[in-house]
Description:
The chain crosses the membrane at residues 20-42, 48-67, 79-98. The protein has helices spanning 7-19, 22-44, 49-69, 74-86, 91-99, 105-121, 123-137, 141-154, 170-181, 199-213, 235-241, 309-324, 343-346, 368-378, 395-406, 422-430, 432-437, 471-476, 489-501, 509-513, 517-528; strands at residues 159-160, 163-167, 187-192, 217-223, 245-249, 268-271, 275-279, 296-298, 301-305, 354-360, 383-387, 410-416, 441-445, 448-450, 454-457, 461-465, 479-485, 504-507.
Amino acid sequence: MMPDISKRSHKTLRILRKMLMPRTFFLMIALLGQMIILTGVISRFNQYFAQFYAFSLFLSLVVFLWVMNSQINPAYKIAWIIPILLFPIFGGLFYLFLGRSRMSRKVSQRMKAYEMATMKALMRQRSKSEDYLRQIEDSRQDAAIQARYINHYAGYPLYPEQYNQYLDAGEVKFEKLLEELEKAERYIFMEYFIIEEGLMWNRILEILKKKADAGVDVRLIYDDVGCLFTLPHGYDKKMEEMGIKCCIFNPLVPVLSLRQNNRDHRKITVIDGTVAFTGGINLADEYINKIEKFGHWKDTAILMKGESVWSFTVMFLSMWDYLRDVSENFEQFKPRQIPSKDQSREKETTSKGYIQPFADSPLDQEPVSETVYLNLIYRAQKYVYITTPYLILANEMVTALCAAAKGGVDVRIITPHKWDKRLVHAVTRTFYKALIQSGVKIYEYTPGFMHSKTFVVDDHYAVVGTINMDYRSLYLHFECGVWMFDTECIAEMKNDFTETLKVCQRVTMEEYRERKWYKVLTGSILRIFAPML
């Protein structure tokens, strides 16, 4: 008989196997080669060290002044000013390659051209959106203000009476996704941060391959950093050979690059322009609890059908055209009338409220996701219920949450009890003190890892999406979400939150004070650099 292997041994073997993947091995060799070359360069030009030192000091000074006078978040400024001052030789260079929140000017201009195409494709719906806004502002001014912001500054319209279904677990989303993929007749668009070979992805891939063979236009986008340890090198070529068109967002190269700080963190599936999914769920087995990495994985998503799917269709096509460097006529992807043979879709009823998908881009200076969250918090009257895997907040968000709680609003936040990133979780816990002292109730999901990103407010508003409450999601990544007003699934989201609370542990001030001194010190130091995590 084979000897038993502990869970820790299994984990070690998985890590070693991933490290030995051709893609990772290639990057390690390339980085090693660069280090050897760099060592040779440093040795050869050692005689110019004085000039190099002077140039580095000057560069760090220029970067320091630029950061101080920029409009970026103050906490982000502090996080970079400290290393620049402590390490003046390399601090300026590190910021130029790793600290800039925007892509290069050339890349930004190119992508903005495709964003203009997005605005053009949504122009008709945005005009209708103004009519809908006027309809609701008499009865609910707060709702109109929030929706108008998304319409004007994110560029995504408001839709009335759309069918939507809240999916309270990865397993539920997986089942629904397979069901809808099997119905695809024209096209399937999928855009995900993480894809990993396993039961979940292999089952989906089986359907995608079958649909591609049947002539369905199947397209896939995945983020290269997100899939660094989950997909082999050249996986996009493998997909193309199967008939699945594939693009990689920001392919990772083993050199310093201005673009690597921005990632595509979105999770989108669009089918025939009539069905769309989004939420926190990537395409890997831990998301459906087929394997256990950090205890039970709690996640959520939303299924939409109807007019609002067009926003996600355009969202995907804009990214696709940028990556492929093509310009398609988006109108050709408009949904056709649902075939009469598809009785399951015809019988679905619409809800009474409004739904507004939106995207957030790091290319502009408009923090759409943060503003959407802040609007919800500041306009809350009864309660704000939040789930998030990371709680690394800018001062604006801390102030909003504390002010709401001090004003009598029931503010509750669920975070993970079991972490996926030790340092990030340590920083998350440093924010507990100020929030708890102000009356915010913090809970940790004891069965495992909370990966859901949701807001529920006053029984009237909700957001489901890909947006974490941290600097990367709010300022650096491409994200998406769905803002809702008076839709039927808001009650389901509230119920899911209250049910989840039953297996959560509330964090009290007494428990917070009992932390070990070295954990407090480590967390305090790490918090300074929180915007970089």
